[in-house]
């Protein structure tokens, strides 16, 4: 289980008071090249409420 994961996306069903309640978290990249900045990553665990 993911623990102590902070999240500010309150439109996600796993969001609870600035924390992620998902049992696992998958982070992906949104670029075809190597990731060099956080802006090039995406939370693939996100689900709309």
Number of domains: 1
**Main sheet: strand order:** 1-2
Low-confidence stretches: none
Order of helices and strands: EEEE
Instruction: Tell me the distance between the termini.
Output: 20 Å
Number of strands: 4
In terms of DSSP E residues, the strand content is 15-25%
Indicate the radius of gyration in whole angstroms: 12 Å
Largest sheet: 2 strands, antiparallel
* Helical fraction: under 10%
Task: Tell me, briefly, the overall form.
Answer: elongated
Number of helices: 0
Give a summary of the structure in a few sentences.
The protein is 0% helix and 20% strand. The chain has no helices and 4 strands.
Describe this structure in words.
Pfam families: DUF1540. This is DUF1540 domain-containing protein. The chain has one domain. Helix content is 0%, strand content 20%. It contains no helices and four strands. The protein starts with 14 loop residues before the first strand and ends in a 6-residue tail after the last strand.
Main attributes?
49 residues; 20% strand
Sequence-ordered SSE layout with sheet pairings:
Blueprint: E1 15-16, E2 19-20, E3 27-29, E4 41-43
